[in-house]
Write a structure and sequence with these properties.
- The structure is a single chain.
- By secondary structure, the chain is an alpha/beta fold.
- The protein is 39% helix and 18% strand.
- Helix 3 runs parallel beside helix 4.
- It starts with a helix and ends with a helix.
- The mean pLDDT is 88.
Length: 229
């Protein structure tokens, strides 16, 4: 919608769907095991939504005596609405390296850190915090599932829409798109400009075959819009 408001033709091709994770029902128990001053980190808006739904289903409130962190502003707003607590997030870029620079993570010795996530992700955060003496655990409250498309649908989508630019915001989605391109033998998409949100994803894109790559200043909608126009 934001792109259309700025007269940019845009199409939406979701590559990932979401379902309850293997630890969806365990969210209340995992949160109840935290002590005052421990840390809860939400990696995405989906993590907040599924965790909140699990708590509501069991009529349990979010703890009020822990520190809440989020990877970015949108996730922080959603977590703050759910918990009614202050949520801290990196103001510069929505990446693990900037999250680790937050004041709340500079002294984590003997603290528990619970990471609300999907099936995988944010291992860098966990490894770094463990090195600093924190006890880090994950709670898989949601699961990412690749969306299947018919070969005919993808051929029609890619060949008839005159696609010039592709926006990808995660390494997982980039790998899924690459698999689709190879499977459908539509290598022309490697000639499209690829807009992404980190040097890590850009480096992966180069390895996979893209040559024209632009990195947005951040992963939020406004930063992506600025990169596109």
């Amino acid at each position: 919608m934001l792109l259309h408001q700025h007269q940019v033709d845009a199409l939406h091709l979701p590559l990932i769907g979401f379902n309850k994770g293997d630890e969806y029902n365990a969210v209340p128990l995992r949160l109840s095991q935290l002590k005052p001053g421990d840390i809860v980190f939400a990696v995405s808006q989906q993590a907040v939504s599924y965790a909140n739904n699990s708590l509501k289903a069991q009529q349990i409130q979010w703890p009020q005596n822990v520190t809440y962190l989020a990877i970015g502003e949108s996730t922080a707003r959603k977590l703050q609405d759910a918990t009614q607590c202050t949520v801290v997030y990196p103001k510069d870029r929505e990446i693990s390296e900037h999250l680790l620079e937050l004041a709340q993570l500079q002294d984590v010795s003997n603290k528990q850190v619970l990471i609300l996530r999907g099936n995988g992700g944010r291992n860098l955060v966990a490894a770094e915090l463990r090195q600093q003496g924190a006890s880090v655990s994950f709670c898989e409250c949601y699961k990412r599932c690749p969306i299947e498309y018919s070969s005919q649908y993808l051929r029609d989508f890619w060949r008839n829409k005159a696609i010039e630019t592709i926006v990808i915001t995660s390494a997982e989605m980039l790998r899924l798109l690459h698999q689709l391109i190879i499977k459908q033998q539509y290598e022309a998409l490697f000639d499209c400009e690829l807009v992404t949100v980190s040097e890590r994803i850009a480096s992966l894109a180069r390895d996979l075959g893209w040559k024209r790559i632009k990195i947005a200043d951040n992963a939020d909608n406004q930063s992506l819009l600025s990169a596109l126009i």
